[in-house]
């Protein structure tokens, strides 16, 4: 939390098809015909790289989101999409979301190892347990595992894939043409994991990657999520509507990490920010209002109802949301996004329409409307005020909504000495100031049993 | 099988780290330092595209192959690798191997849909059930499922992912900014699959892809494999050492497909060919011998022992392989590769060393050593002689072993009118002359239940 001379903002571009405002695809400046065109995302990533951002980031979930009738809520598969982005960039980090609940650890470990190899060390893993209950039906489960159970598997899952990524020591690859030794099998280790949720023998079928492991990112801010983040995460994505809330979270997470013996500076806290930018504040607010006018109450209401487990009536759009209607107990109450909405209702007593507009901006993330100077001011305020090590930039629409941030806000942040003017390293770990981990197997002389005894 | 004026060879470049000869990585013309460098594979794919090949193809398996001590037998993860190749090419097909035994159908369907979207219709799926028993331990299984059981799951798996790829009809994506309708949810269908091996609800979380479905490729030539190919495959990869064997297979597969009511011309049979090319036949043979000299008996013997389930003695390298030692019964006998080796032993009565060299070329595939004209002659002989619709080209080493094929053999095939001089389409289905399938759901008016009833 101390502001040393070297402390610099970390900035990711969070890419969402169409943009982060729920009506983005309807805005005249967006291109709904290009939502499945990899070229659009490659151009975005190149612009983000030209602006020396740390990373691009893709969310994900293994099911069709609700209400695709009204919003561009299909999914871009992150591994393939980011591999194609890697091919046209050379520095920017590539953070893929992947679920510990609905993937096999061996397959996931391979995908990340490959992304790290082909990008020469730019992969990050946003570790999620999947919130959408409808995913269960796509994987033969009768019900989505409950929150605590998902996190229990997630912890074991991360331990397993960590061992897989470490299973080839860095020195295992020899490739000596003269002697004919391709790999030092004494430095390739089965992991022989047998746990409550998973049994994985290993080793991985690829040499260790440039970063050793992808950067571990985590995005849940629930109690389980914080505990998980404090233990595993090197960067934490989080949603806050106020400086106070962000500050509390920041302090809490750093404290938890320190309590586990970790260096708090190596657990970066990165809230989301969705900026509407105008040449005047009034112009920025008008732009935000224009987006809100494009929302469709059928869509927004249904989303809110699912989140809160409450039914609303369209006739009540302009009445205050009854605080009492929200039942904060049970499984729903464990979700940090649920809690954020309850906080907004308690703090602002909004009408239903106001609440819907508030959430339309970026699904509960911080929406800022202002001039480039004002947006930079808010970023600096959070960054120097103990609330953030940087931000996930969530443009309301793509790609214009990012262009104006890159063209207008980034130069101000650079002038103030808050953000890099050029990359000083090549990997995502370099950008984030994180060390490259040694293999946990380094130095252990356990031979790979299956190849230890060649035929006589 | 009839040779019409339009009948043209299909040629894929089968990419294997280092090359297909087991000692390729030791050859002075190969670059073991670049085996994990995506740039090497991107350059190869661009050269293959410049030579108007149909596709590049990556093998795969979810475990570390045996004997990595002596050979470059790690794995390149196909989806990420081919996505990065897609980014630097525009026409060539991209065929990824993926296992029906060790993946979740929802995840696999997403990866292929994404590869097809981002490549604008160039994805193919080499459907395998995974032969390596050590994969089981990486996925929590006590034992690798037996051959028949794997194929039983494979059939159900293909049915499931086909339905997932069809679950968005082509017209489902509307994206009409004015009306606010993003998708026609009447044209997005849950698949509600409940089978012996799999339960998958669907729909997929992405719109239908340029090709509708990836091209279905299959590579097993066992009895189970042939039945599977006849029913599902649009292209079949196969290994034959003689024209006679290839002809028998070709006729059998076309007959089986016709018996199931399919058009045999839409089941392409593509044997592997691994060409050593020289300016004279003697030079080509000398090159092949040079590679064989680089093999390591410890490695080759162990591989053969695993395949055949027999122990050999290094002292017997120069004695004939005893035919009687090979037990052709049981699970092993079901493998077409096993049968191929038995045939070589019966036909040629090779010494153990000769057999090892024969298999070192391309793991049992057809190895040809000759001048460019001679190689083109053999290709033409098989193509016009009812043995092949084209070939999987398996260069002994990469990338030089492909360059000489592209530079010397392809022009001859073009001059003879056997191979295209330019692409006439943009998708892999175009190149292979295969139709784009309609969604099986087209016209059914089953609404997507979860979004059919928006809140009032």
TrEMBL record, chains A, B:
What GO molecular function annotations does the UniProt record carry, in alphabetical order?
A: oxidoreductase activity
Region labeled Disordered — which residues?
A: 434-456
- Domain Luciferase-like spans what residues? 42-387
E.C. number(s) listed in UniProt: 1.-.-.-
- A Pfam family the protein falls into: Bac_luciferase
**Xref: InterPro entries:** Diverse_substr_monoxygenases (IPR051260), Luciferase-like_dom (IPR011251), Luciferase-like_sf (IPR036661), NTA_MOA (IPR016215)
Give the UniProt keywords, A-Z: Flavoprotein, FMN, Monooxygenase, Oxidoreductase
Q: Name the Gene3D superfamilies on file.
A: Luciferase-like domain
Q: What's this protein's family per the entry? A: Belongs to the NtaA/SnaA/DszA monooxygenase family.
Name-wise, this protein is: LLM class flavin-dependent oxidoreductase
The species this protein was found in: Streptomyces millisiae
